[in-house]
From TrEMBL:
Residues 147-174 form a coiled coil. InterPro entries: DNA_methylase_N6_adenine_CS, HemK-like, Methyltranfer_dom, N5-glutamine_MTase, PrmC_N, RF_methyltr_PrmC, SAM-dependent_MTases_sf. It comes from the Bacteria. It comes from Oceanobacillus polygoni. GO terms for biological process: methylation. Keywords: Coiled coil, Methyltransferase, S-adenosyl-L-methionine, Transferase. Methylates the class 1 translation termination release factors RF1/PrfA and RF2/PrfB on the glutamine residue of the universally conserved GGQ motif. This is Release factor glutamine methyltransferase. The gene is prmC. S-adenosyl-L-methionine binds at G125, T126, G127, S128, G129, D148, F175, N192. Residues 9-78 form the Release factor glutamine methyltransferase N-terminal domain. Substrate binds at N192, P193, P194, Y195.
Length: 283
């Protein structure tokens, strides 16, 4: 009879295999914990216990697939955390990034929670719905809209909103077009649009380039086309005194400032750095 492998042995094999392929060995833990269906604490308690053969097989196949193709671990487990909540993700949506948590935090922190009037918010290009859903849950007395051109992305976003019991009005269409058609007027417009120039594609890792949707990553005009389109449409949906907040590529601050300035000449524009000290938000 073959001896069952202990958890730490399976983990050690995986960590070495991943390292050999230039991948992060931490992925081994995330995947094994996922296939065992245990939480972090239980996982550490089980370290010297044997792993059921079927789990070993599934786990090894996943580790090999990740190591060789670069498939994101989130596509294997089917979820990612954002702002302390779990979101369903798949190949139709951008995997949530920690930088985007900073955008959301900036908005929640600069919102007056004691105000009496409801606040109307729109998230443009919502993808998995992370921004819209988090704002709907974190800002009391808010009415939140979210748009996306992709039906497949909206399916994911709607599932997430349902699971997290967030009240978000999803609209299908190009940037702000569906909001314009409905005559919606907002206090806050937020977006993490595609902002990578096509020419930068070769510099991206295979995990991003081959698996995040192209629609979510790339924009024409050196990565500025989506900002341009949203800002052009923005006067039709924003109230007289409104806030615009964008996630940006770290070298796009000046260009996005200029785009906002052109359309909203009376505005106060500022840039905020992320925790890595890179320009990340223009508002
Ligand atoms: N708003 C979503 C996010 O921030 C999707 C962004 C995108 O697809 N560019 O993750």
């Amino acid at each position: 009879m073959t001896q069952l492998q202990k958890q730490f042995e399976v983990l050690r094999w995986a960590s070495l295999f991943l390292e050999k392929h230039g991948r992060e060995s931490r992925v081994a833990e995330i995947l094994l914990q996922h296939y065992l269906g245990v939480d972090r604490h239980q996982f550490y308690m089980l370290m010297r216990e044997p792993v059921p053969t079927e789990v070993v097989d599934t786990f090894k196949a996943a580790v090999e697939k990740h190591a060789i193709t670069g498939i994101p671990v989130q596509h294997l487990t089917g979820y990612e955390m954002f702002y302390g909540r779990e979101y369903i993700v798949n190949e139709h949506v951008l995997i949530p990034r920690p930088e985007t948590e900073e955008l959301v935090q900036h908005i929640t922190q600069s919102t007056d929670t004691s105000r009496e009037k409801p606040l109307t918010i729109i998230d443009v290009g919502t993808g998995s719905g992370i921004i819209a859903i988090t704002l709907a849950l974190e800002i009391p007395n808010s009415i939140v809209y979210a748009t996306d051109i992709s039906e497949d992305a909206l399916k994911v976003a709607k599932k997430n909103a349902k699971q997290l019991e967030a009240n978000v009005h999803f609209l299908q269409g190009d940037f702000l077009q569906p909001a314009i058609e409905k005559g919606i007027q907002v206090d806050i417009l937020v977006s993490n649009p595609p902002y990578i120039a096509k020419s930068e594609a070769p510099e991206l890792s295979d995990t991003v380039k081959d698996f995040d949707p192209e629609l979510a990553l790339f924009a024409e005009a050196n990565g500025l086309a989506a900002y341009q389109a949203i800002i052009d449409q923005a006067p039709k949906v924003t109230k007289t005194k409104a806030t615009l907040a964008f996630e940006i590529g770290h070298e796009q601050s000046e260009a996005v400032h200029a785009l906002i300035q052109e359309t909203f000449s009376e505005s106060t524009i500022y840039t905020i750095q992320d925790i890595n000290g890179k320009d990340r938000i223009v508002a």
